[in-house]
């Protein structure tokens, strides 16, 4: 089910309805009745009613749902402040409570109650009202509804708190069990509003590797604050830019369904100017769970920090495929330079290659041995016998890393929103931009143990990042040699490990139906893209390329130009070689078209010596194959089409290697495909995919935000014309 925050309609989605149909079938079995036929449950959204008539009298008892709503109005202040939600419900406190009670009115017994609390940062204006909602049912032999529609009168533009009380006259176990089934659905009806205010500024006192340098902090924190959200929550992030240059944040792995306006890259947003603020409104992990991170997206600022973790939790109704861990730790690993991002940027602008990083940080802190000399090092405290979840993200800019813990195995359970077939590893390769969740059980003697993040396939030696796994009550420091990582002399270990990471086909993730419901075994590929990594000298400048084309960033974001004047004068769609290398290296604003509801095969070919890492905004793709050598049509025979993992960032090994992914194009917007190696991205190794749906219905693609920043040829307050049907397409020879 979901709540449309504008119309406040509660709608059961098809997948949830299918689960309910099966539940009803079980009800009849338990009641020793004839089992009704199972049919697909047809669900549809309803227009916002002004009045709901009760269902016509019938032999079966009517079910009524009484809904009390509290609209939430999120307000923004001119300067940062933090307030908590206060509602007019009883008891008043700094929490939003969603309480669902199913009550038997005749016998007076309470047979289901579920309470959920979430702390929110927001301010509210509360006006309680009570509406009646009737469940209309179309019967199909017995009590199985083949259509269930729940509509609620009222309006709440920015959020709503709901209290449901379902009262039914009992007529045997059928109704009791049926309403128990409905309770599972009602638990997931409420999406939380999370309102955050972030002050972005420099701090020159942190200096993790002992060198004074300006580090980008958020609310004084490095790394920045963790975003804790649940599937389908609405997140508002009001960013105050106290830097001396423009700033943007992107949300690595958050798909921004139907809403590339909030993606936070140069092709979708004008930057936040120094001394101003702007709110990312309705950044939403729609139908997502898992581990992600955010970071600056322009001007090489990621090299200065400004990154932080994102946790997206499952809804209550979804079963997580492992026991609840004792704790949930964030582990941000990444290489680090002691030079400022401006110095590094200037070196690149002058045509220089960057040297090797100066070290590797874990959660922004120095290695253990370095920290013993006065700096902080990271430590995680555990209790013997307990199991912990570690969410590991490589937030670095240049280096693939290997992660391991002395004397402990890593049970891999999730990667970038996908539950995976659970496999134990002694160590795990984490390439730039990638995120994993592992379970670690504290099953060793009470002591301290090394946690290591070391460079993989680096040109020069880089000091490893070292933290400590500290057992509660341990008085024994970590000792001995650091645990050894895999051999860097060839790619075999890493390739075999990558191929072993497979989708968990039987568990649900953001939805109750198994992940394996969506598979690529028999899909028809509509188009193949072959994208080559390259380096070129263009007009005297060193640039990175895709198919020998280096991206030229226009003054106006592509999405804004697309909306306002059909992209005319800014870009030409599909003026890009999709499968071949351009004979002439040049700079262009590269935009390709993605046709809605089609399948793409994207082959990433690395003709260079170094491991590459690629990320696509707006989507998760199926990593169906990878290997050494040059890709050809014969390479498809090696694809895993049964259980390939779905993720948004994938590696491509060096020395002439390839990776192939399948992508279902179903998310309209302007989406960035880029190298996650920051030097490559900064110097032009990216393209955009324009996925167009001509339907202006906001359920197809969300409209331009009212707070949109204008730049380039625009000025604040420019008119917002309707988008034209399709951009011009250059005739290709």
Which key features would you list for this structure?
7 helices, mainly beta, six-stranded mixed beta sheet, disordered C terminus, 733 residues, globular, Immunoglobulin-like, 9% helix
Description:
- This protein has 733 residues and is mainly beta.
- Among the domains are: 2-190, no CATH class; 515-692, Cupredoxins -  blue copper proteins (Immunoglobulin-like, Sandwich), CATH 2.60.40.420.
- It is 9% helix and 35% strand.
- Helix 1 runs antiparallel to helix 2.
- The longest helix has 17 residues, at 14-30.
- It is globular.
How many helices? The count is 7
| Strand runs, count | 41
Spatial shape:
globular
Strand arrangement across the biggest beta sheet: 19-18-21-26-23-24
In quaternary terms, these chains amount to single chain
Could you list the spans in which at least 5 consecutive residues all have pLDDT below 50?
1-18, 31-189, 715-733
Indicate the proportion of strand residues: 25-35%
Mean pLDDT level: 78
Sketch the major β-sheet.
6 strands, mixed
Return Rg in Å.
27 Å
Helix content: under 10%
Distance between the ends: 49 Å
Structural class: mainly beta
Quick rundown:
Helices cover 9% and strands 35% of the residues. The protein has 7 helices and 41 strands.
